[in-house]
Write a structure and sequence with these properties.
This protein is an alpha/beta fold. It is built from eight helices and seven strands, in the order E-H-E-H-E-H-E-H-E-H-E-H-H-H-E. Strands 3-2-1-4-5-6-7 form a seven-stranded parallel beta sheet, sandwiched between helices. The structure holds nicotinamide-adenine-dinucleotide (NAD).
């Protein structure tokens, strides 16, 4: 079967999407860009006040709805997917973006904090991904079009940070989940990819950015010499969701200002644990 392409290849107009963790940061930027592309967006976030404010701000761009949802809880996820289908009839695009960090040295890391980060970043992506994929697969079986699922990974899927153990583990897991989901859903034509951002200017990074030494440390390993913008991640989500990416599945696309290709040396005589 040949893939027919339209003139405006990126066209997402009229499609429907769930973006988790879209009350702020990268998720908000993705929801905003989707709304500008004519996508009807469901913002799913654990933060009710921030989520409602985000949806209200974006409603001037298009149909944007907020649903309160903790992606680590399967009952919340079931409610989210039901609400999206009730509102839109269909889900074409899912972006599993919700994510949290927890800083602790390995020897001090508490079991509950390990579970919490893995619960949101990894299990949450599985839960929402499976619930939406079941809907997408049913639609394909009924003769409908397959959808696209995008997971938010990180350069920390490849690198590790000594005091961000559950985060690093969760993002490695997200990239593997992306591959396994892509293989499992390929028979339906459903594509599953991930985005692996480097350092992007959001609340998650704000504390780091406020500390000049930490900022310098980031820039010293970022060949493009600047911290990335959420809109630069949203642009990749648009691409991966669109038919322009019709032969890409199971991949993590890293947007990191050239950080992963860089083999740099640590400053001599200086170590983080000094
Ligand atoms: P952020 O903290 O600005 O936003 C995360 C959002 O997720 C918040 O709105 C928060 O309320 C929501 N959230 C948290 N727990 C949730 C839960 N259980 N259920 C639903 N929503 C929940 O973070 P960000 O920087 O925009 O990060 C977004 C994603 O991008 C995360 O997966 C993060 O790991 C990834 N990422 C960010 C960077 C970066 O530099 N900012 C780099 C690599 C990857």
């Amino acid at each position: 079967r040949r893939v027919r392409k339209r003139n405006i290849e990126m066209a997402l107009n009229g499609k429907t999407a769930i973006v988790t963790g879209a009350a702020g940061g990268i998720g908000y930027s993705i929801a905003e860009r989707f709304a500008k592309e004519g996508v009807k967006v469901f913002i799913a976030d654990v933060d009710q006040a921030k989520g409602e404010a985000a949806a209200a701000r974006l409603s001037s761009l298009g149909e944007v709805t907020f649903v309160q949802c903790d992606v680590s809880r399967s009952a919340d996820v079931a409610r989210l997917v039901e609400a999206a289908i009730a509102a839109f009839g269909d889900i074409d695009i899912l972006v599993n973006n919700a994510g949290i960090v927890h800083g602790a040295d390995f020897l001090d890391l508490a079991e509950a904090d390990f579970d919490r980060v893995l619960g949101v970043n990894l299990k949450g992506s599985f839960l929402v991904g499976q619930a939406v994929a079941r809907h997408m697969a049913d639609r394909v079986k009924a003769g409908g079009k397959p959808g696209s699922i995008i997971n938010m990974s990180s350069v920390n899927a490849v690198f590790a940070i000594a005091n961000q153990v559950p985060y690093s583990v969760s993002k490695g897991g997200v990239s593997q989940l992306t591959k396994a989901m892509a293989l499992g859903l390929a028979p339906y034509g459903i594509r599953v990819n991930a985005i692996g951002p480097g350092s992007i200017m959001t609340d998650m990074l704000a504390s780091v950015n406020a500390d000049p030494a930490a900022r310098n440390r980031i820039l010293s390993r970022t060949p493009l010499g600047r911290i990335g913008e959420p809109s630069e991640i949203a642009a990749i989500a648009v691409f991966l969701a669109s038919d322009e990416a019709s032969y890409i599945t199971g991949q993590t696309i890293y947007a990191d200002g050239g950080r992963l290709p860089l083999n740099y040396t640590v400053e001599v005589g200086k170590r983080d644990d000094d």
